[in-house]
Specification:
alpha+beta; 2 domains; 5 strands
Length: 125
């Protein structure tokens, strides 16, 4: 009779829809995959292309047992640790570095992070 909503945190990047993914889907006979570009230049697509997750952390709070996801590399822990992992990613480790890189890239005329990653000087920062 108990329901829980375990806290989760995943480290995974989801870039804008890729033309190559769209083309692969069309070759498989899946049509209508063209992204819609909004007036604010955001992309909406019927598919998602992502990098593989680096890690998924889930609060181990399941009242009636839980799936054995740790066999596939998922980390189960307490809520406090999930929150610490989230803070590490968002506030100290990854996101601030990505944001800094994006700012330098804009100043240098880049429009894609993927192109910035090819610039040795930016990567050295």
């Amino acid at each position: 009779s108990k329901v829980t909503f375990p806290w989760t945190m995943i480290d995974k990047i989801t870039p804008r829809p890729s033309k190559s993914v769209e083309e692969k889907l069309e070759k498989l006979g899946i049509n209508g995959m063209e992204p819609i570009i909004t007036g604010k230049n955001t992309y909406i697509a019927p598919f998602v292309n992502t990098e593989g997750p680096q890690y998924l952390v889930i609060e181990d709070d399941f009242p009636n047992g839980r799936p054995r996801l740790e066999k596939s590399g998922v980390y189960f822990t307490d809520r406090e640790t999930v929150e610490k992992v989230e803070r590490m990613k968002v506030c100290t480790c990854l996101n601030p570095l990505h944001t800094s890189m994006a700012v330098f890239g804009c100043l240098l005329g880049y429009t894609l992070i993927a192109d910035e990653m090819k610039d040795r000087e930016i990567v050295k920062l």
